[in-house]
Amino acid sequence: MKYATLYAEDVDIGDELPSLVKGPIQQIQLTRYAGASGDFNPIHQDDEFAKAAGMGGVFAHGMLSMGFVAQALSDWAGAGRVRKLGVRFAALVRLKDVVTCRGRIVGTSSKDDTHLVEVEVWAENQHGEKVVTGHATVALPSRG
Amino acid sequence: MPITLDRAVVGKAFPPYAVTVERGKIKEFARAVGDLNPFYLDDRVGAASEWGDIIAPPTFATTFRDDSLDYTAFLRELGTDISRVLHGEQEFELHQPLQPGRTYLCRAKVVDIYEKTGKSGPMGFVVRETTVTDADNEIVGTMRAVTVVRL
Questions:
Q1: What is the ipTM of this complex?
Q2: A139 reaches B (C-beta below 8 A)
Q3: Which of the residues in chain B have pLDDT under 70?
């Protein structure tokens, strides 16, 4: 359930995160993200520039897709729980693409009062092609 | 025309720069992503939370840019330009959420440059690490960015 408090006792290795569907990607979102992030690379805004650069047209900031993955993690684990998130941008996200973020728990550990959950994360487009792959560490509270 | 990256840039440390997190910037960023979590957007929810104020989403530190840095000049120093670069990988490690009103110090350096040949030809990889510290010189986070250069 989105924004519910998740406890360390609630999760098991192999569990999958609720998937998060984002998009279809529109140019206005890339323009907004440029302003919000400060990344004004014209390759995300100017179709002619992107074509001249050999990219076949504009594509989304990788960091926007990473933001989607971070949202999937926070929707599930709660805000402020992500300790580490590392991703590789595996394929370009284009205008009109629909990006679905997913994750699976691959490890858990507890030391003192810190309960860490290791999560394999990825995002795929509407063709099932992975556009982001990565790994996250989330710290969860305990029921005590 | 193939280009080569200047490996002499490995080890280059950029001048430290300070960033102050603005409340409105956190909200603008969360809305741009479409992440409407109340812990990022609602001041009253933030005030009543364990953090005492709103917090920033996990990838917010990507906004920590050095406004005085000439990125074009850095790319030229590497031997490339903006039309050839792509974001290959990114990692954030956060010891605590970033919050509005706080000022952080960022120290970035180039830690590695290597080349690989992929399915779309030869690629250069430039790895930069940025350490983010608070006013007590405690590390609150680190960022690792891999920029891919089409050679």
A1: 0.97
A2: no
A3: 1
